[in-house]
Design goal:
about 140 residues; 5 helices; disordered N terminus; mainly alpha; about 70% helix
């Protein structure tokens, strides 16, 4: 019969370095009790994260419903095509994320970043790059 992976040490052999449980636990270069404590702590923290995420999902649900209604109004009332509207929204989100990447850099790093983008052409020959350039100038 195999021993369970997370077996508690025998109280009678505690403190005896040559006890079979202690030799096995230390021969793998870690202390099983410390491993158990770390795993329990990590799992508790993961559970906290999951609880926070669940609360956030619940709080966001009404906002997601609002967005659905706004998109439906855009389609039904204003005649704006859904697929194209969603594409525009995705593109604008991506461009904001790209801008945020640059903004996180220090000023001298931004200058180097700009030089690198210029040297690479930063997609300026492609339709997306032209569209982005036209959007920032207008």
């Amino acid at each position: 019969m195999a021993k369970p992976l997370l077996q508690k040490p025998d109280p009678e052999s505690e403190g005896k370095a040559d006890a079979p449980e202690n030799v096995h636990r230390l021969s793998n270069r870690f202390d099983a009790d410390k491993l158990i404590a770390q795993v329990v702590s990590i799992e508790a923290t993961q559970a906290e994260i999951e609880a926070i995420m669940n609360r956030a999902r619940e709080q966001c649900a009404p906002l997601r419903d609002d967005i659905k209604q706004l998109k439906a109004d855009a389609r039904e009332i204003d005649g704006i095509p859904s697929k194209e509207l969603n594409a525009v929204l995705r593109k604008r989100k991506i461009l904001r994320q790209a801008d945020a990447i640059r903004e996180k850099l220090e000023e001298d790093q931004q200058d180097i970043f700009d030089d690198m983008e210029h040297a690479l052409g930063q997609l300026s020959d492609l339709p997306l790059g032209q569209s982005a350039l036209n959007g920032t100038r207008g």
